[in-house]
Amino acid sequence: MRWRGGRESDNVEDRRGMSIPRGAKIGGLSGLGLLAVVVISMFLGIDPTVLLQGGPEIQTPSVSVQPGSRAGVNDDQRKFVSVVLAETEDVWHETFRRMGRTYQAPTLVLFSEAVQSACGIAGSAVGPFYCPSDGKVYLDLSFFEELRTRFGASGDFAEAYIIAHEVGHHVQTLLGISRKVNELQARVSPSERNKLSVMMELQADCLAGVWARQADQSRQILEAGDIEEGLNAASSVGDDRIQRKTQGYVVPDAFTHGSSAQRVRWFKSGFETGNLQACDTFNADRL
Q: Between 153 and 30, where is the model more confident?
């Protein structure tokens, strides 16, 4: 991916090395239930704190790093993240302008170990997430190493896809899609809620594809093999693959993000068309 020398976004908030107060709490589950939520949410999905609402509270350990230090700091990775975020800003500003709307760019928060968001507290294990309550994307850069070593999804464009997917959730919020889906989920059965969640996640994958196509058309950011990296990343985080790894069998009714094939298909749909209209997962003949 051609990113060096690109514009860096001003909307990056670096909280690496900051501490979370001891005794901070997050609503949630316990035991295996908590583990299941963490496993599901760590793979590029919705804010895990949303999944943890409504249950007993869990005490989170304090995370304390010496003032002035940055645990696992990597300035090159920070630059990369800033450039990718800037690329998403350019694409979505222009897309919203063509729709007669104004794009409000999200802030991307870098953190280490744990972070406080408007949606609650999350540890690094939950992976990247978007919090609609504050309009911020949260990312511990150590997740990229996890993506490479544990899930076999390597390459800078695989990492860019992750950022673009989370920004896709921000686009859904600005367009009012997230609010409508949340309202629907409050009125339906658990299995129907899961289906709506899958539609949301696949749409975010499609939006990531739209971003990639438009950014490449404008600034030729893609190199040979980049799209394959993105497709591999999308495939590696499919619900079926995750369930098979974690429990040895697949339960489609429990999907919240979509299968590997679905995630690949919707990313490709967004990339091949470069059109926001191609991402209507809610009215598609098939997911």
A: 153
